[in-house]
Automatic annotation (TrEMBL):
One of its GO terms (cellular component) is bounding membrane of organelle. It comes from the Eukaryota. This is Chloride channel protein. Belongs to the TECPR1 family. Pfam families: Hyd_WA, Pex24p. Keywords: Repeat. Residues 77-138, 148-183 form the Peroxin/Ferlin domain.
Length: 278
């Protein structure tokens, strides 16, 4: 398996090893396989049964069904900004209050207002991340006033918000931001699972030739569970290397209600627009 100038493999004991595959090797040690063992909490080596390398990441699967991520060194810092909106309503004789109406969005929500998300609900996805700063108010003067507020008549889905209040401004909102940075370069991080059904026996990756930017998937990672269910790792991006969650793929229908898969095989036929034109 190849990743960022390295070849990856497993030795007989299930230990991942990395070989410098640079076209311009320096020194005599570039042919040495480097031990990249994964250890548990007691510092005992974990036996890996499969390893999948992409251009920038390496995924490993142990015998118990857990996945691990290795992100290669990058010249660009990996950052992710989370945000939530603080919402308030104006009441005669009281003024602005975080106590909104039952039909309004909650006092903290996403931009649409459908999802309640107080600031304390945001957690680091793994120990590979560190918060870079406390929560800060977005003070973009083109969108918000000096305190970060936007004003509107109500909280309807298509409500128009402006950066200054008017006589008909009865609701307001402001955006809170917090940045986290990925700090686990060149070391293994266990990918979190939501339940025991997300323990796997096989995995594969593809789609590396698709042109990707910061807002699109870098590649597709699939995993096969012990129950024969196929999962896709959602949200693998440059600023989110481990993705966001495992998403179950609907089973292939047959007369009995579904086909159980015994292996995973992904054939990627998508090419970039540039390659298609050539």
């Amino acid at each position: 398996m190849h990743s960022s100038g390295y070849l990856w493999g497993l030795d007989d004991s299930g230990c991942p090893r990395r070989l410098n595959a640079s076209s311009d090797p320096q020194g005599d040690d570039y042919l040495d396989w480097i031990n990249e063992a994964i250890f548990d909490g007691d510092h005992r080596p974990i036996r890996i049964q499969k390893i999948v390398a992409t251009r920038e990441h390496v995924m490993a699967l142990d015998k118990h069904g857990y996945c691990y991520l290795y992100v290669c060194t990058s010249h660009t810092a990996i950052r992710f900004i989370v945000s939530t909106f603080e919402n308030q309503r104006w009441y005669p004789g009281i003024g602005w209050s975080a106590r909104t109406l039952p039909t309004d969005r909650s006092s903290f929500s996403d931009e649409s207002g459908f999802l309640t998300q107080p600031r304390e609900s945001f957690k680091l996805p793994s120990d590979g991340w560190k918060w870079e700063q406390p929560w800060m108010i977005d003070l973009n003067e083109q969108l918000y006033d000096k305190e970060g507020w936007q004003y509107s008549f109500n909280f309807e889905v298509n409500a128009h918000f402006r950066n200054a209040p008017t006589m008909t401004s009865f609701v307001r909102r402001r955006r809170w931001l917090r940045s986290r940075r990925y700090t686990a370069l060149c070391r293994w991080i266990q990918v979190n699972v939501a339940c025991s059904s997300q323990l796997f026996v096989d995995m594969c990756a593809g789609g590396f030739d698709v042109d990707a930017d910061s807002s699109s998937e870098l590649y597709s990672l699939f995993a096969l569970s012990r129950d024969g269910d196929l999962y896709w790792r959602k949200g693998i991006r440059k600023n989110s290397p481990e993705g966001t969650e495992w998403q179950l793929i609907e089973p292939i229908p047959d007369d009995s209600g579904g086909i159980t898969l015994s292996f995973v095989f992904v054939c990627c036929l998508i090419e970039s627009a540039e390659k298609a034109e050539s």
